[in-house]
């Protein structure tokens, strides 16, 4: 049995496979299997990271998405990769949650959605940002 270096590809791209997946990621949707029924979907993403636009220090949060789909549902692996794309962005708590909302609504146009970012305390300050959208 041989071992394989999973960080390498045939083209010897130095970018790791997870980094390539995050870079190529986008919010993918699929048809709602029950478009005539109102139901909710709750997604929790506990490993959100971004960087403070002023200090460059990392910020950590849990993102909560609560939505009622209309015609489309967001694919879970796609939302995971999309959220991971924030890890190297210098972006405020407020802008990150509002941008996630904008991209989420553009991708799946839900009946309603609430997105909350619960950021870990830093410097004795705990921040929770919540935005809502309704058709």
Describe the fold and architecture.
- This protein has 135 residues and is α+β, with helices and mostly antiparallel strands.
- The protein has a single domain, classed as GTP Cyclohydrolase I, domain 2 (2-Layer Sandwich), CATH 3.30.1130.10.
- Helix content is 24%, strand content 36%.
- The chain has three helices and six strands, in the order H-E-E-E-E-H-H-E-E.
- It has helices at residues 17-24, 76-84, 93-108, and strands at 29-31, 41-51, 58-68, 72-74, 112-122, 125-134.
- The strands form two sheets. It has a four-stranded antiparallel beta sheet with strand order 2-3-5-6, covered by helices on one side.
- The longest helix has 16 residues, at 93-108.
- The mean pLDDT is 90.
Average pLDDT score: 90
- Assign the CATH architecture: 2-Layer Sandwich
Structural class determined from secondary elements: alpha+beta
Q: Could you name the ranges where pLDDT drops below 50 across 5 or more consecutive residues?
A: none
- The tally of helices reads 3
CATH topology: GTP Cyclohydrolase I, domain 2
CATH superfamily heading: GTP cyclohydrolase I, C-terminal domain/NADPH-dependent 7-cyano-7-deazaguanine reductase, N-terminal domain
Radius of gyration (Å): 17 Å
Beta-strand fraction estimate: 35-45%
What strand order characterises the main sheet?
A: 2-3-5-6
């Amino acid at each position: 049995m041989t071992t394989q270096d999973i960080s390498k590809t045939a083209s010897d791209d130095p970018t790791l496979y997870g980094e390539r997946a995050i870079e190529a990621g986008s919010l993918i949707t699929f048809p709602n299997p029950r478009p005539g029924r109102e139901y909710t979907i709750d997604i929790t993403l506990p490993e959100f990271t971004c960087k403070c636009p002023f200090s460059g220090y990392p910020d950590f949060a849990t993102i909560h998405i609560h939505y009622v789909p209309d015609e489309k549902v967001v694919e879970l692996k796609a939302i995971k990769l999309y959220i991971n794309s924030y890890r190297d962005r210098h972006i405020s708590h407020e802008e990150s949650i509002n941008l996630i909302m904008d991209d989420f609504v553009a991708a799946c146009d839900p009946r309603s959605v609430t997105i909350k970012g619960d950021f870990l305390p830093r410097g004795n300050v705990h921040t929770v940002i919540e935005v809502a959208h309704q058709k």
